[in-house]
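re: that chain from earlier
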Amino acid sequence: MRPQVTAFTDCDLVHTSFVSAGLIELANNGLIDLDFRLQKTAWRDYRGRFTVLLRVSTEHHEPRFACVDVHDSSSYFSHSSLERCVRYFKSNFDPRELRQLAPEFRERVQPLGLYFGCRSARDRDLPTRHVGSVASLVAKSKYRLRSALKYDEAYRMFGISVRRLRRYRQLLKISEYESDPRSDRVEPKIYFQTRLFPERNDEVRNMNRNRAELIRALRKEFGSRFIGGLSPSIESRELYPDCLSTLDSSLHSHIDRVRSSLICVYSNGLDNSFAWKLAEYMASAKCIVSEQWHNSVANPPEAGRDMFFFKTIDECINACAALLTDKSTSTAVRESIAKYYSSYVRPSTSMWRVVKELTNCDLVPSLDRGKP
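^ sequence. v structure.
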């Protein structure tokens, strides 16, 4: 008997799309029975819109609950989910943050790993999932459902829900991110396109400055072999106009450039979180030169084999230069990161680990790369 998985839909449609896509892939390949469900209490009880509550059961086990948390902050936890769940999988996992939790909750928290926004080629249950996203929005409102039914509040929430649905439909299918390092042709280019955030504190101010300085150094060192820059915004135009990018910033254009470039540079996200682009780079089998991570994953990639890490701009420059000039190394790195992605990052693989953890199932799914 296959595991029965119920995913409760009171969560953000876009930011939890990785979880939904992975579960749908598992169901499409006959590895789980899946349904999406909206609880009546979702309209009033706010659990956290960046968390997905899962219920997993088999003929040998009573239902067990797990939470998948894709919140950017390593210090954030959904305490209601921690109390209810036997496992809590957190994408931006920093073991130091476990100190804030009661001892009985600490052992429940495990690193989820990297993730990115995506859709399954055979998507399903979108109306139920969209209504659940609206329910999380209503529950979060400080005025709750009664006030949400007033015209102005209802109009605002309707606009937000429409934008979320539109953004979800703009996400690419999983297969559209993935590349084969042995057959896909790439140009000897270095790609790094990023954005700035409003400088609300010194941490954000330093992050913005570091990104601008990295872009300046890459442009100076590699000239036309570097593509990218800062996405145009109020902050980037005002603070670093010399670093602006002229490239289209749409998702489709971004992924086209990722797939066609040999090297992709990565810097940590807001609050030192894992940005989507890191997993996108892996899916596209790029040579990744990454700022040293602050958060942890269960199975970290090996430096120098799977990808390269830097702490200083000079280290980034040197790694990019070496990959540009040594084709055998760049080919080996691309093949290695493609295997890492398939083993630990692909949505179906990541979600199968969650299901397996709750069922103690030793089966290994046979998911062909070409299957949707």
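The chain has two domains: 4-176+347-359, 187-345.
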